[in-house]
Amino acid sequence: MKYILLTILFCYSINSVAQDPNPELFQTWYLYYIQSDDLNTEYEISEIEPPIAPTLTISENFDFNGEGACNLFYGTFETITSTNLETFEFLSETNDCGITVHNFFETSYFDFIRFNGGGWYVITSETNGMVLTIANPLGGIAIFKNYALTVMDFGWNDIQVYPNPSNSEIFISSNYNQVLKIELNNLLGEPVRIPKSSTNSIDISNLAEGIYLLRIFTEKGIAIKKIIKQ
Predict the structure, then answer these.
(1) Which residue(s) pair with 225 in the sheet?
(2) pLDDT tens across 44-96, in order?
(3) Based on C-alpha coordinates, what's the Rg of the chain?
(4) CB 133 within 8 A of CB 125
(5) Residue 193, phi-psi category: left (phi > 0), alpha (psi -120 to 50), beta (remainder)
(6) Residue 188: CATH number of its domain
(7) 17-30: per-residue pLDDT in tens?
(8) Which residue range is the domain that position 190 belongs to?
(9) Nearest-5° Cα angle at 14, 13 to 19
(10) Same domain for 140 and 189?
(11) Which end of the chain, N or C, is less packed with Cβ atoms under 10 Å?
């Protein structure tokens, strides 16, 4: 089984059938990171130039709407469990954004929402607000927060994580940011125990294969990177 953590998340959602959806889901979310599946390009929104501000607003009846780079979209989710989101309907504008990276990003973002069959979500808290993480069975992940990127966010995140995927050690480097500490979470937002690590490397050799989220704390903010343990 390629992604054990995605399977764990699926089992978690099955066990939540009798529960109501998290009421915090129903608000406007600002996209920070997207990879539509594990073979496609990763997009850190703060690194896209010229800057964009993609959103996703979810209503209590599970209708949704949002904005990509230059086009609007809307549709309807349906739920099977309290932690499950599947796209029932999706419609979008099809204007040319006029900038190649914007067009490519928007295709990836819209495809993630449009073809979200069997997707799962979890909402976690951090200092400035809440984080919505949506994952799909293809290794795709979207990370939203309920507060917008600021001007200071754009361009500051030069943090590199490599090699990725890896089966042993992963290194963290940055030319412009001092890394203060690092944390590792699974896709449920739960902390993962790791051997003693420094601020520039992490040993993942003892972890199960799958997808994890590496939270990197700096003086300028928190960067979230998806890492894959082979």
Answers:
(1) 214
(2) 998 898 889 999 999 999 999 999 999 999 999 998 788 888 999 999 999 99
(3) 17
(4) no
(5) beta
(6) 2.60.40.760
(7) 335 789 999 999 99
(8) 156-230
(9) 70
(10) no
(11) N
